[in-house]
Design brief:
Blueprint lengths: L6 H17 L8 E2 L1 H4 L4 H4 L7 E2 L4 H5 L13 E3 L2 E2 L1 H14 L3 E5 L3 E2 L3 H14 L2 E3 L1 H9 L5 H13 L1
Parallel strand pairs: 1-2, 3-5, 4-6, 5-7
Helix pairs in contact: 1-7, 1-8, 5-6, 7-8
């Protein structure tokens, strides 16, 4: 993480996505890309997602054995993809999910790369392939759906704390 451009923002926004997902009972999945060589998930995020399978494939959808969106037993067809590096693991995971028929959302303030050019080109490629670029805050409010509920109050606390 120390070499990732804007790493503090990426980590903070990923943490808010995870906290909101857990609060709203949205399933969260994480993987670790070659932790022996690249290091494990940073503690701020690792403690919130205890099960993180190791992988060597850049796409986590391959590692997790995800099939076609139409075959998902829970009927889920939308996936939010965040993390690092935007031009490698995020890109290949999102491309595989798009090819499998999932609707893919990329919160641009929760993805990073070492170089901004790599991140920017990856986001352009993802947009051209059909992924929807968004922000972590938009994702949180879309998950929440309405104001005035206990869920809204929880989500609002995450966002107010951020500003």
């Amino acid at each position: 993480m120390p070499v990732i451009h804007n790493s503090e923002e990426v980590v903070a926004n990923c943490a808010k996505l995870i906290a909101a997902a857990n609060s709203l009972h949205v399933p969260v999945t994480a993987t670790e890309q070659y932790p022996k060589g690249l290091g494990p998930t940073i503690p701020q995020l690792a403690t919130t997602i205890p099960h993180r399978p190791e992988k060597l494939d850049f796409s986590c959808s391959r590692c997790l054995g995800w099939g076609l969106a139409q075959d998902d037993p829970a009927g889920r067809f939308r996936v939010v993809v965040a993390g690092i590096e935007a031009h490698v693991c995020v890109l290949q995971t999102a491309m595989d999910l798009l090819a499998a028929g999932f609707r893919v959302y990329i919160p641009v303030d929760a993805v990073g790369s070492r170089k901004t050019l790599d991140r920017d080109i990856a986001l352009q490629r993802l947009t051209a392939a059909g992924a929807i670029l968004t922000t972590y805050e938009s994702v949180l409010f879309e998950w929440c759906e309405r104001a005035g509920s206990p869920d809204f109050k929880q989500i609002s606390k995450l966002i107010v704390r951020a500003n």
